Amino acid sequence: MLSFIGILVVVQVLLLVLSVKFVPQGFEFTVERFGRYTHTLRPGLNLIWPIIDRVGRKINMMENVLDVPEQKVITRDNAMVRVSGVAFYQVLEAEKASYEVTNLEFAILNLLMTNIRTVMGSMDLDELLSRRDEINGRLLAVVDEATNPWGVKLTRVEIMDISPPSDLVDAMARQMKAEREKRAVILDAEGDKQAAILRAEGLKQSEILRAEGLREAAFREAEARERQAQAEAEAVRMVSESLARGDLNALNYFIAEKYVDSIIQLAGAPNQKVLMMPMESSALLGSLGGIAELLNGAGSLRTADAGRATRGALPAGSGASEVSGSRGSGGAGPAAPGSGSPWSSGGPTHRSLPPSGPQS
């Protein structure tokens, strides 16, 4: 009896052990009852019916890495390249990954390799080398859609290496060098063009400014000549008025000034080594004497004007007695013409310059 109870206890313990299942984190176990899928065991402690239930598949629910081996791909322009890559996937539904496909990793790998040949074969070599992001996106979209019925999510597909043949690499290097040299020549030509344009613009601006300067100088010179002509016209008018009044001193002064200026220009000529004075050089001295006499006459005229103003301010009797007293003291009456008195002939005495030419 005791042995039977012991055997019963051992059987119960054995059944308890068989019914308890521990599922680690990151995994899920499928349960099969008489060979048919019933449910999935989550991570942690789980109980099943012993003998009739058993664990079918142990599925890794974490993200997995799948290496895509190197393979040859022929591009659209008939270039042979070697391509390798890597893919990342994660199982989302354990029952589909267990019972919808026989070998999950092998199926994903073959699907990736065939789609790599399809996508890259529709592109040129230049596009293949410069559009890796586009290739990765197209592969990810196609393979993820194909693996969706298997309960798998393809998270990323990356092309690791694209290796063209060595002769094709040399040709590409020569092409790249020629393209860079072409760009360098174009940039040099553009630089020369811009420099020529800037130089032409600078010359244009300088010519415009120079023309404006010449125009302004011409305006100023014309204005100066106009003012000089006005001054000379005014001088001629004053000389004409003096001649009309019978005063020759202004004419003598005008002629002497021109004569002196001519002598100064003759003496200051840079190509003149010997100064030849004209025979009528003595006329220069006479002209200078005429200028001095003109200045003395102008001083006497101012003195006479001051005296007239003083006599006009005195009373009438005193002015008469002064005149009579002066006549009595002189005893000779009015001054004779040519005596040098500023009151002779009612005004200043006019003297002519000495005749030109040598004097004996």
UniProtKB/TrEMBL annotation:
Residues 18-176 form the Band domain. Residues 312-326, 334-348 have a biased composition (Low complexity). It is found in: Membrane. Gene3D superfamilies: Band 7 domain. Its main location: membrane. It is a single-pass membrane protein. Pfam families: Band_7. It comes from the Bacteria. One of its GO terms (cellular component) is plasma membrane. Residues 312-360 are annotated as: Disordered. InterPro entries: Band7/mec-2_domain, Band_7, Band_7/SPFH_dom_sf, Stomatin_HflK_fam. Belongs to the band 7/mec-2 family. This is SPFH/Band 7/PHB domain protein. It comes from Phaeovibrio sulfidiphilus.
